[in-house]
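Page 47, continued from p. 46.
Same chain as before, 430 aa.
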Amino acid sequence: MYKKIILSASLLLGVIGAFAQTNGSNSPYSRYGYGLQNDQAQGFNKGMAGLAYGLNHSKQLNFKNPASYASIDSLTLIFDIGFSLQKANLEQGNAKKNANNSSIDYVMAGMRLAPNLGMTLGMMPFTTVGYNMNTTSKLMQSTGEVTQTETYKGDGGLHEVFVGLGYRPIKQLSVGANIGYLWGTMENSVYASYDNPSISSRRRLYAADIRTYKLDFGAQYEQRINRNNTLILGATYGLGHEVNRPAFYIDQRITTNQGSVGDTTRLANAFELPHTFGVGAVWNHRNRLRVGMDYTLQLWDGCRMPELVNNTYQVSTNSFKNCHTLTIGGEYQPRPNSVYWFQQIRYRVGLSMSTPYTKVNGVDGPRRYSATLGVAIPIQNGWSNRSVVNIAAQYERVEPKFSGMIAENYFRLCLGITFNEMWFSKWKVR
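Result:
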């Protein structure tokens, strides 16, 4: 068992450094709250729009519901890693902008520790902050009309590293938990400059360094309906809590003669994470067709977040609103046990809708709609017959509630590779 854990940890450490160097966002909406939330989907469910709560499989890892770890095969170590390529199109009136990004979505490893007891450890982004944009306006001063240019920049985000256990106490019921550590920095700045050199420039910086724990729990109940059909019910809960970390606000005036002068405001205990609830169901027909639905509720309303209100930097409970996410998805595999390669390919489809968790200048942020298609291609050669390449194509529409706000379109190609080999089987020589 210890060899399995050491091997898994070594594989994860080999790619952790790459997470700090990837940024999967160009969205100005990542300026608000903690940034854009990661969908926490993996290669196996990217093509199903992230469907997860009622899914388990002996040859795949399901981070969204840790109860699924109890189903991990006893002879294998599963190593799973995912990447994405993204093309973004941002629209505001007649103005349009395109941007390209790439990112590492997650890295995980899992194994069975004992009968009915599985473990997974891994890392994935929790939120992403990344944007750079300018606005220009005319102002009247005592010296006449001047042009003000404001540059908005944001960078950073939060990451989560975790270890999880899943246990099956009785045949139909599994329970599990993920214990995580959440960390990262967030920086948002506004720099105002003028075409008149006699007017001082102004720089405002909002910064935070987050360090806290994260706890998530899950359960799955499997009920056989008849010989060919099974229903799996899933439920999850994420613990909400205050984050005892400070936030900083730096307001500087910059002149050509005196350099920069300004004030720094520090707010203690400025952040909070929401309670999160998830429920889902999956219908399994002969292990060929799986169709399901998930619903997620994040209770962001009332959570603490620093905010500039009437030129005063203070902790506010009005920055967020409750977030609702509905996901429908499914997959079809012609013949799971066929000797023919093309009959083992899995075909996937999914739809998702999510309401915003942040407010944008006091009004509701945009809704998100996504549609996905995917395939799982088995790897079969002389030494492998259990590993899978997961490919998914995703279209996401970010639709603002009011006209004049920025609308976004995303086209993503997601690649997930699940290495699943019989590394721990024992050979006998007769």
